[in-house]
């Protein structure tokens, strides 16, 4: 789904599409911020200019002493200053507003890019996704451009190489401590390289920045300092909360707690629900935990008109909390701050039994479909060429004489489904028991991207097809001759000669997300779409696109294969070209179309829904996950941008992750 381009029409269209995507992201995240949540609760969201977010900052240039900035100073003016010249580091304590400050800067820069066609396009990335120490920052940027904004690698190289992007990087402190300095070194190398950006903004916690032996080579730093008493008092006065000020102003412990914008906003939202005795008697860390618990309780208890569950009963507070605890825990394990439903992977299954069940379902269904469809095509061909023999269907051996391919094709389809299920269950059981060892070795296996016919692959799969055919005949208990086995191997060899590279890579790769991303733009004509940017605007868009692609491919291959079989009968001089011959041709075309569609785009769909089913049955997620996550955004526990979800703040995500997961 492509967004409507924004900005000056003199700017290239792809850049304007990217600009629209970033603008939508920034606008959505600021709208869902906690500061805005306070205004919404107070009925002031229509007058945000009257209640500006408080901030206290000082600027440091090089080795000069830090200088306090007037409260009227904007982040844009700091960014544009001659000393900083567009290369800025934003530091602050957790909850001090670093990310919000960066988003506010991004909003101003987007407006500038809309007006000035030559100005770089601002883009936002989180450094927590930098997983490989050996990966250059340029390669990481290309991967992130493709993953987050759907930018093709070729276009991404052009933009990065020609300095068309203004990078705003967050989450340096979210990397593992031992990797943070390596990331700083990679950023510095990027700043000195041939693709060095003209403008760059990075966010990090102030305590992490002081621990690096290597310093970021940026021009200036802005420190977000704790709010002053006057700032807190003025803010509470503007929103008519002077009663709160009168309480916390005489309690130094409480006053220290609300010196960050995050906890000031949370305190305002939950003030009516907290016990000052409990808050006052606990330690500072415990007070923070108590405040976050109070926020979660408040958000889950408030009465809202849910659009997500407009026609259904919403989950209760206990289930909502339970599912969010599990989600936060998984995101913590993967060092992620954003979650996409379509990126869910089998690695979410931690114990052996669910892994075995997953592999049994996936391999059983896939092998059943592949085996059944191939045997169905074989049956049609055998019926058309006049081969007699026997077929075992559900334990019964049926002799068939040639009277057309319809009945034989159907019988062989049933036999193939039966045999394929047996093969799939065996393979699934083996993969479930020993898959972890295989997956560890193949984790970094890449996908071979080739749409050309591969003779080597065809020969390899021809041999595999012959072996597979023999095994199937042994399992089914019947032997119909060498010709059947040869036809079997020929069909599977031809199919895999066309698309086998992708199938092989898909089956040996640990995740199927990469396959999804590379198949999303596969069109009705069987060639990759020329769109350079493909935006994701709805939850689980990649999976539903694969469902659509499966259908499109099935239709695409159904028509020519049906015509081909019918023409072959005409060429052979079949004097009995009748309704049965037409039905046989249609049946073969249907089987072949479904086979190609499933192999090319359908297998990720099967894997995804098998995984979702197991997670649902084990109580980790609700069945309609997108609806639940949207419900949590309504409760102001999550934020949603397009198809991506994140907790409303990283501290809230960490708080959920520390809770114990308790199923029903």
Keywords:
alpha/beta
Q: How would you briefly describe this protein structure?
A:
The protein is an alpha/beta fold and 664 residues long.
Explain this structure.
This protein is an alpha/beta fold. 58% of the residues lie in helices and 9% in strands. The chain has 24 helices and twelve strands. The strands form three sheets. A seven-stranded mixed beta sheet has the order 2-1-7-3-6-5-4, with helices on both faces. The chain has a three-stranded antiparallel beta sheet with strand order 8-12-11. Helix 7 (177-192) links the parallel strand 5 and strand 6 (200-205). Helix 15 (317-333) packs across helix 24 (650-658). The chain is globular, with a radius of gyration of 30 Å.
Write the layout of secondary structure elements.
Blueprint (H helix, E strand, L loop, with lengths): L12 H19 L2 H8 L14 E6 L5 E2 L6 H6 L6 E6 L5 H18 L5 E6 L10 H13 L3 H9 L3 E6 L6 H16 L7 E6 H4 L10 E6 L3 H10 L3 H7 L3 H6 L3 H10 L5 H6 L2 H18 L15 H17 L5 E2 L11 H34 L3 E5 L2 E5 L4 H38 L12 H22 L5 H27 L4 H7 L21 H31 L7 H39 L7 H10 L3 E4 L2 E4 L2 H9 L6
Parallel strand pairs: 3-6, 3-7, 4-5, 5-6
Antiparallel strand pairs: 1-2, 1-7, 8-12, 9-10, 11-12
Helix pairs in contact: 1-4, 2-12, 5-6, 12-14, 15-24, 16-17, 16-19, 16-22, 18-19, 21-22
Number of helices: 24
Which stretches are poorly predicted, pLDDT < 50 over at least 5 residues? 44-50, 391-404, 436-454, 478-486, 498-531
Major sheet size, sense and barrel closure: 7 strands, mixed
* Total beta strand runs: 12
Instruction: For the largest sheet, list the strands in their spatial order.
Output: 2-1-7-3-6-5-4
Measured as a percent range, the helix fraction is 55-70%
Helix/strand structural class: alpha/beta
Gyration radius, to the nearest Å?
Answer: 30 Å
Morphology call: globular
Strand content: 5-15%
How far the N terminus sits from the C terminus, by CA atoms, comes to: 39 Å
Give the averaged pLDDT, no decimals: 76
